[in-house]
Design brief:
- The chain is of the alpha/beta class.
- It is built from 4 helices and 3 strands, in the order αβαβαβα.
- A 3-stranded parallel β-sheet has the order 1-2-3, with helices on both faces.
- β1, α2 and β2 form a beta-alpha-beta unit.
- The chain is globular.
- The two termini are 27 Å apart.
């Protein structure tokens, strides 16, 4: 499930989902790489987290660009570069690429995704 604009007011899965993620140690932001504005998608997520509870902003986070099979390598690289202004923890995955799925599994298992020093 994901957050949509207005989630902090109960829209969509809203409050129920936000309460649930308060218990997690890692936030994995799944953003569709075919979106026209991955940066705005990320900012929407962060805004909803902040409006619900600023504590959520201090959790470890990873941006996961999904559906990478839908864009070419140049577009993927451009979108990763745009997002690096916000966090260095960016990964990409396609369900059609088993290697990317295995890397994602390893990322999640390893210390909740990222080490506190990275």
């Amino acid at each position: 499930p994901g957050l949509i604009e207005g989630a902090h007011t109960g829209k969509g899965l809203g409050i129920k989902f936000l309460k649930h993620i308060q218990k997690t140690r890692l936030l994995l932001h799944c953003i569709d790489v075919s979106s026209d504005s991955v940066v705005q998608d990320y900012k929407t997520i962060r805004t909803e987290l902040e409006k619900y509870s600023e504590e959520l902003l201090s959790k470890k986070e990873v941006i996961l660009l999904t559906k990478t099979d839908l864009v070419d390598a140049k577009d993927l690289k451009k979108k990763i570069t745009q997002l690096k202004k916000y966090t260095k923890h960016i990964f990409s995955v396609s369900l059609l690429d088993s290697e990317s799925i295995e890397k994602l599994k390893a990322l999640i298992v390893q210390d909740g995704g990222i080490s506190s020093s990275s």
